[in-house]
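Notes continue from the previous slide.

Worked example: a multi-chain complex. Inputs as given:
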Amino acid sequence: MALGRKNNAAGYILILPALIMLAVFVIYPMFMNIVMSFRNYSLLRVGDQNIGLQNYQDLISDSRVWAAVSRTFVWTIANVIGALLIGMGSALLLFAGFKGSGIIKSMILIPWVLPSVITGYIWSLMLQEDAGIITYILKSLGIVAHDFSWFRTGPLSMSAAIMANMWRAFPFFSLMIFAKLSSVPQDYIEASELEGVSPWQRFRYVLFPFIKPTVTICTYLCFIWSFNAYDILKVMTNGGPAELTTTMSIMVQREAFQFYEISRASAMSIIMFFIMLAVLLLAKVLLAAKRRLSNGR
Amino acid sequence: MPRIVLEHVTKCFDKFVAVDDLNLVIEDRDFITLLGPSGCGKTTTLRMIAGLETPTKGRITIGDTVVFDSEEGIDISPAKRDIGFLFQNYALWPHMTVYDNIAFGLENLKWPKKKIEERVKEMMAMLKIEQFEKRFPSELSGGQQQRVAIARTLAPKPRVLFMDEPLSNLDAKLRLEMRSELKRLHVDTDSTFVYVTHDQLEAMALATKICLMNKAVLQQYDPPLVVYNKPVNLFVADFVGNPTMNFINATGERKGFNDVFVHMLGKDLVFHSSETIDGDVSDLVIGIRPEFVKLGEGNFNGVVYTTLPSGMETTVKVKHGEDMVTSVVFGSVDFSHSLDMPFSIVSDNIIMFEKASGKRIAIGSLS
């Protein structure tokens, strides 16, 4: 027993450095964020006091916030679906194997490891209205008008940013799903071959059940990452034109570091957190309900 | 009815030859075991017949259909070969119930719903798994999963059933039980079974014919007792039988067409065969099954080295000069070590191998 207690102390000492780092850089800021959201702290004024739920009331009744929330959902859903489909498709392609798939396998992670700010700049350049390669090709092929610009209207700006983010996000799906596919026992694939199933059925009944847990986790992760994503939008559109690509994270950033309304930004980020939590919980509940239904037949 | 014919079938993986010029005829309703040490090419052979592996050369016929021919470029997909394949790890669909697992293949074959239901019920009754109908594979024990796998494989009434070491994941007791059930199933289903195993006892017990392979080459293809009693070479003699055959080095000299003077275990003996002995008899290996070594009396004087009782029988190793002779005694005895033990060799099924080539050249008796 005495020995056990001594070991325990040693254990705590060992995790202490990590614990301190966590406390200083994660736990304290999080706590302060909550505290701030109930005050009216601004970098433009001296002094601040507790104003209770005033910030929340203001934000909830602000139509600009709700517009940002809905844009965040558009942005997130488009990204998750796009990255998931491209990721799964490319994983299946890699799994089937083709000439040169080995090289692609090792290169596919490049978009993922590139800093997303760089990705944003690259895509901005490629989509730039005069000299961007993509715009140039589209223009010379006559697909778009000569005065076409990606960044003039809200939907187009949004799709440009979504394209860039999808390009950045899909390799992660690709690799995770490919890794899972590679671990499907050969027996199952051969058994399906012997039973003469069609390629679609093979995917539906043999491969997909295996990769389903991976796809679920990837979807959750992609949801969280997209919902919070900030850098690509900041670089490519900066929330414009006319706030039409301003998502919540852009709004929080602007509120805090352009308008210096720290308390309002804190409250906004907490609202963001609860929206995200609600979506994830809803997904969990729905999945559990579905599982119960399919087991109970 | 299906008769499987393999002609000059060869399979190379890059430079490694897995199966070398294999010729094999599997008759309808046979229970064939492909036997051999790991890496001998038995599984590759099975997979080639099933269509999961493409031979490098050769021709495979199932029934009247040529399913593979390297020269004519025929290669029929596994699904169209009308065969069943039982995997070592069962390969049951983990997300489907027992019922759905059995029905899935039938649905793919576009059977009418009513017939599927009938057939699945029939298979579940046959393999005594009715009570598990709604369970998932993960909720079943290994033996139960095995039964589901068999039911699934047999459901579409395949003409031929292939099995790749199907019992190796089961515990010893269950393995024995499933072995007898498989043999029974073979009779009941009236189809051809091809079975891969590395366990010679399993092969002996199940097969109507054993196909013994080593290093990509077919060694012997005969009924189990023929393989046991008349092994064609040293490899076969050594591989089949437990405890293994005694191999005793000997020198010989021809005495006539059927007789050879043999010098072994320090004694001069006469080997008498009922047939003409053909081959070089100067350097020999004499093969004696342990059950032919009778302990207690005889003109050989050995010393007990170890005794391994297993209840029903006892394996006794006796040291005779430099040689070690194994004997099997029925019943339970326990000799003390280093006990003087005279023994005799009594049988007309002693096998004479040519030492250089390892080939069997005669079967006969020693006196």
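Summary box: DSSP finds 13 helices and no strands in chain A. Residues 2-37 of chain A form the longest helix (36 residues).
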